[in-house]
């Protein structure tokens, strides 16, 4: 947060000093001569002794990110989209680094210092690859203005408490000045007026601060709890979406395996039918070839026997003619003729078979 010379709290401190100086010029007397300022300082010191006045935040990482632009909460809608994206990325880093204890981190490019719009786009494109990353980043991108306003009060409260500490130091210096004046033995009325003024200012400031602190703390706790619930709900939805996507992928893989198995079974059935057809064709072809060969073989045998019969008949005829020329008796002729008939009949029967 800026702490320049024009900060409103510096203006408030200047007003307090002016009031103190104006009060010094007044000379009102009070009935009591007891000074309140030293007692007030003593009470403040005793209450804050050994303690550091501050406001505790759940996440120092988120506080650091918000502090970088909290003075621009009212102009958050006018911020460049690339700048908003960079803020949402830093807030997402805080969630994953602190709540997930480093078990789940953003891509490495998102942890680099993003000085250009291209750096931011490169990180955002990688966040879109994971539903949990994207949901967290997109949720923060839409809640940048709300988060800024939620943390603005606590940060201003922190600064107010720092101002309170500074006021304590200033009062201590004034008490020292009053003690010096008192030792000089003059301006008792001035000391009383300053004491009364400090009393009134301290009471009013204490009352306002108490109310503001309570109200801011209440608003801060409510806003932070609401933001945490929204982030938790977003992370839950992202986780459910991731689980659903995984189930869909498993279902698709199962259907794919079933289709593959059915296709292989159908292919095996078709190949089995084709194999039977091929075996049938082979058997039919071989059977036909065997029958054809048998017919050819029978015809060849018949031709051989026919040739043999012709040869034998011719031989018998030649023998008969020879016997006739040599005038061998009729008995021999009859015997030869009978033998020729028998042999011829046998050859004829063999050829027919």
UniProtKB/TrEMBL annotation:
GO terms for cellular component: endoplasmic reticulum membrane; nuclear membrane. Keywords: Endoplasmic reticulum, Glycoprotein, Karyogamy, Membrane, Nucleus, Signal, Transmembrane, Transmembrane helix. The chain crosses the membrane at residues 303-323, 329-349. It holds the Pfam family Tht1. It comes from the Eukaryota. InterPro entries: Nuclear_fusion_Kar5. Residues 1-29 form the signal peptide. GO terms for biological process: karyogamy involved in conjugation with cellular fusion; nuclear membrane fusion involved in karyogamy. It is found in: Endoplasmic reticulum membrane; Nucleus membrane. Belongs to the KAR5 family. Required for nuclear membrane fusion during karyogamy. This is Nuclear fusion protein KAR5. The lineage of its organism: Eukaryota, Fungi, Dikarya, Ascomycota, Saccharomycotina.
């Amino acid at each position: 947060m800026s702490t320049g010379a024009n900060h409103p709290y510096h203006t408030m401190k200047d007003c307090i000093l002016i009031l103190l100086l104006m009060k010094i010029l007044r000379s009102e007397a009070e009935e009591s001569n007891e000074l309140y300022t030293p007692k007030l300082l003593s009470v403040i010191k005793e209450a804050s002794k050994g303690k550091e006045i501050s406001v505790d935040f759940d996440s120092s990482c988120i506080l650091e990110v918000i502090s970088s632009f909290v003075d621009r909460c009212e102009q958050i809608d006018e911020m460049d989209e690339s700048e908003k994206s960079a803020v949402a990325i830093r807030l997402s880093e805080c969630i994953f680094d602190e709540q997930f204890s480093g078990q789940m981190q953003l891509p490495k490019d998102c942890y680099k210092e993003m000085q250009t719009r291209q750096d931011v786009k490169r990180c955002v494109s990688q966040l879109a690859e994971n539903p949990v990353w994207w949901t967290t980043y997109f949720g923060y991108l839409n809640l940048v203005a709300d988060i800024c306003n939620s943390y603005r009060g606590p940060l201003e409260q922190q600064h107010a408490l720092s101002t309170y500490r500074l006021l304590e130091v200033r009062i201590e210096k004034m008490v020292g000045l009053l003690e010096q004046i008192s030792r000089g033995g003059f301006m008792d009325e001035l000391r009383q007026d300053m004491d009364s003024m400090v009393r009134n200012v301290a009471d009013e400031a204490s009352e306002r601060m108490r109310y503001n602190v309570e109200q801011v703390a209440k608003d801060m706790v409510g806003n932070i709890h609401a933001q945490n619930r929204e982030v938790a709900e977003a992370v839950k939805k992202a986780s459910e979406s991731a689980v659903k996507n995984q189930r869909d992928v498993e279902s698709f893989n199962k259907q794919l395996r079933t289709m593959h198995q059915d296709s292989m079974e159908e292919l095996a059935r078709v190949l089995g039918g084709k194999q039977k057809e091929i075996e049938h064709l082979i058997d039919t072809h071989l059977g036909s070839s065997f029958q054809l060969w048998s017919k050819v073989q029978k015809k060849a045998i018949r031709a051989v026997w026919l040739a043999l019969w012709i040869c034998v008949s011719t031989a018998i005829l030649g023998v008969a003619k020879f016997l006739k020329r040599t005038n061998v008796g009729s008995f021999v002729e009859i015997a030869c003729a009978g033998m020729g008939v028998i042999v011829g009949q046998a050859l004829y029967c063999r050829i027919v078979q």
